[in-house]
Design brief:
It comes from Talaromyces atroroseus. By secondary structure, the protein is an all-alpha fold. Helices cover 76% and strands 0% of the residues. Helix 5 packs antiparallel against helix 19, helix 12 runs parallel beside helix 19 and helix 15 runs antiparallel to helix 16. The longest helix has 43 residues.
Length: 497
């Protein structure tokens, strides 16, 4: 057989193979365009984003994971023996939560102002080391008063982290890159909650009594061990801001290009206008300063996480320590899946960076679930489903913070200031909110709390429609300011979205 005959017999349709490969390639690129960044970006931009994701986004997620792990462990410790061991009674868990909230609030405004004066690559890892040390100390508390003091110190340090990280993420990624990354960052809250439950179950079963420590004490010790090395990595991986970065993984050309692309995306350079009294007044004159914090209170108030309600119900109905710690982790699994999908879809060509549709889609199932739990006397299967569905709105905060960057695209410092204001307003409101409807003595039913969450959820849906209206109005104003009118104005408005 000749070579030509052999080729024909073994590859009867050789010309179809390149076409098939091209079709498969186009299909994969189309999927990538929806799931991640546009595959048609220039090679240098893709390489820049890859490095930024590997170093900056990864250490941000690890830091936020350790923060939420240290924050969530008190609920797991409470239902696993700490309540009895240190003599907690009545609503002591609520009071510990409110003390934490007070410390968290105090860390907010100084953090975003300090972040422009002290390198975040020094500031953030330093507070991470401190909260790791205080987490170790939590294992040694003997009374509720000691617990309050330690929780306050942990909160002061952790209060610095979130607003600064949201500030920095918004300073490196453009509007079409920001949503999915912000939700990935925020999803680590869910993973921390899941991990804490499994960790506490394992500590209770395998370490209870080891070296004279109870299982709940080992939870704090292990959390501190996890947090400390993450803190030290932060000294090397956090890139500061594009204007001040000295990250080892970015070239000078990439740094200059990163600054330019953020300006092209509508953001003013860091420090273009110095902090002074007139600047604060200018910020306060914007509608964003007043409305966005109200929206974030609705976001947080409609999310039923102020008490481990599912775990407390399981404890009240006689379930084992293992079940109490592990079954609620399914709530965090629901929240993680929903958050990631919402971030991907909101950045995809389907929604083109719009946030309000995803926000409403995540909030509606939680509203339904809260109504079910407010009714309470429902079939057991429906009650279990409702507890899991309450966490579908876990992705709302990440989407909401990504939306900030579109609503405040023109001023670096204003974004940080409004983020801090939103957090402070939200957490101050949460103190009276928890004392009113989420007190531990109201467990396991929390009747008024679930009614309140459903009402605030409806209010948030309506509020998101209002924000969408204001967003479109501002986009049209910017289009007119650029000299675009009539049909062209609509095109520019859509581009800005």
């Amino acid at each position: 057989m000749s070579k030509a005959q052999y080729a024909i017999e073994t590859d009867p349709l050789p010309e179809s193979q390149p076409a098939a490969r091209n079709t498969a390639s186009r299909y994969l690129r189309s999927i990538q365009r929806y799931v991640w960044d546009d595959p048609d970006k220039p090679a240098k931009e893709k390489w820049f984003l890859f490095k930024l994701d590997i170093f900056f986004l990864t250490i941000s997620c690890l830091g936020y994971f350790s923060k939420n792990l240290d924050q969530a462990n008190i609920s797991n410790a409470y239902v696993s023996g700490m309540e009895e061991a240190i003599g907690m009674k009545g609503s002591d868990l609520t009071y510990a939560s409110n003390v934490f909230t007070a410390g968290y609030v105090l860390g907010q405004f100084p953090a975003v102002i300090l972040a422009t004066r002290v390198r975040p690559s020094i500031l953030i890892p330093t507070v991470e080391v401190l909260w790791s040390v205080f987490t170790f100390c939590s294992a040694a508390v003997k009374t509720p008063s000691q617990l309050y003091a330690i929780r306050f110190l942990v909160a002061i340090c952790e209060g610095t982290y979130f607003p600064v990280m949201v500030y920095i993420i918004g300073s490196w990624y453009t509007r079409r890159e920001r949503g999915k990354r912000m939700t990935i960052f925020y999803t680590t809250t869910s993973f921390a909650g899941m991990f804490s439950g499994y960790l506490q179950a394992g500590a209770y079963n395998g370490l209870n009594g080891v070296l004279g420590h109870e299982g709940w004490q080992w939870l704090f010790i292990i959390c501190g061990i996890i947090s400390l090395p993450i803190a030290f990595l932060g000294f090397f991986f956090y890139p500061d801001f594009p204007e001040t970065t000295r990250a080892f993984y970015l070239t000078q050309e990439e740094i200059e290009w990163a600054q330019k692309r953020l300006v092209d995306d509508g953001m003013k350079p860091l420090g273009e206008s110095a902090w002074d009294r007139s600047k604060i007044f200018r910020i306060m004159a914007q509608w964003q300063f007043w409305l966005l914090p109200v929206g974030y209170f609705l976001v947080q108030g409609s999310y039923p996480i102020y008490q481990p309600a599912f775990a407390l119900w399981l404890k009240a109905t006689g379930h084992s320590i293992y079940e109490i710690n592990v079954w609620p982790t399914g709530q965090y699994a629901v929240s993680a899946v929903v958050q990631i999908l919402a971030g991907i879809l909101s950045d995809s060509p389907l929604f083109r960076g719009k946030r309000w549709q995803m926000l409403i889609a995540m909030q509606v199932p939680t509203i339904f679930a809260c109504i079910v739990l407010a009714c309470w006397d429902v079939p057991l299967g429906l009650k279990y489903a409702a507890y899991y569905l309450t966490y579908t709105c876990a992705g709302v905060p990440g989407i909401y913070y990504a939306w900030y960057s579109e609503l405040i695209p023109h001023d670096h410092e204003m974004r940080g200031f409004v983020i801090a204001a939103s957090n402070i307003f939200s957490y101050i409101q949460s103190i009276w909110w928890t004392l009113t409807v989420w007190r531990t003595v109201l467990s396991p039913r929390f009747h008024a709390a679930f009614i309140g969450c459903s009402c605030l959820g409806v209010a948030l849906v309506l509020f998101s429609i209002l924000l969408r209206f204001l967003e479109k109005r501002d986009s049209k104003k910017r289009a007119r300011a650029n000299g675009v009118t009539s049909d062209e104005e609509t095109v520019v408005t859509e581009t800005l979205q």
